[in-house]
């Protein structure tokens, strides 16, 4: 009985730790979506180049949660995600695109970006 309780306690701790590490990005949503921004989240607008060639970036939160943001490959060149407010490290990105975040110029792997109350990510095809 004691071992079963200890096992369940360790398992519960592992599940809670994993859930805490994940920071859930919600989206993409079309710009016509009128839902309210959840508490603690930022509305991050994503724009793609007119050729709709996509692009993606992987962002890792301070707690280790990894999420991907994608540019459009469809008829919609602008949409948004709800992103938990905070700091994120760029851990990977598409090789075929340049990425700008919050208007601070071209982003590289290893850069730290911050989203509070909103933000912007733009994808552009490399020449």
Give an account of the 3D structure:
By secondary structure, the protein is an alpha+beta fold. The chain has one helix spanning 2-21; strands at residues 26-30, 41-47, 56-61, 66-70, 78-84, 86-93, 97-101, 112-115, 119-125. Mean pLDDT is 83; it is low at 4-21. Residues 1-21 form the signal peptide. Keywords: Signal.
Please describe the structure with a list of short key phrases separated by commas or semicolons.
127 residues, alpha+beta, five-stranded mixed sheet, 9 strands, 16% helix, 43% strand, globular, signal
Produce a short descriptive summary.
The chain is of the alpha+beta class and 127 residues long.
Which topology does CATH recognise?
Answer: Immunoglobulin-like
List the secondary-structure elements in sequence, H or E: HEEEEEEEEE
- Multimeric organization: single chain
Q: Gap between N and C termini, in Å?
A: 65 Å
Which bin fits the share of residues in helices? 10-25%
The structural class is alpha+beta
CATH class: Mainly Beta
The number of distinct β-strands equals 9
Helix tally?
1
Radius of gyration over alpha carbons? 17 Å
Going across the biggest sheet, name each strand in turn.
1-5-2-9-7
What's the story with the biggest beta sheet?
5 strands, mixed
């Amino acid at each position: 009985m004691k071992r079963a309780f200890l096992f369940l306690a360790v398992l519960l701790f592992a599940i809670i730790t994993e859930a805490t590490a994940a920071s859930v990005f919600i989206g993409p949503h079309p710009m016509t979506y009128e839902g309210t921004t959840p508490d603690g989240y930022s509305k991050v607008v994503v724009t793609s180049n007119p050729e709709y060639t996509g692009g993606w970036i992987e962002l890792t939160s301070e707690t280790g949660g990894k999420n991907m943001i994608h540019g459009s490959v469809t008829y919609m060149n602008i949409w948004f995600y709800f992103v938990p407010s905070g700091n994120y490290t760029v851990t990977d990105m598409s090789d075929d695109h340049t990425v700008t975040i919050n208007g601070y110029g071209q982003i590289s792997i290893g850069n730290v970006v911050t989203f509070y109350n909103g933000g912007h990510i733009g994808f552009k095809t490399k020449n």
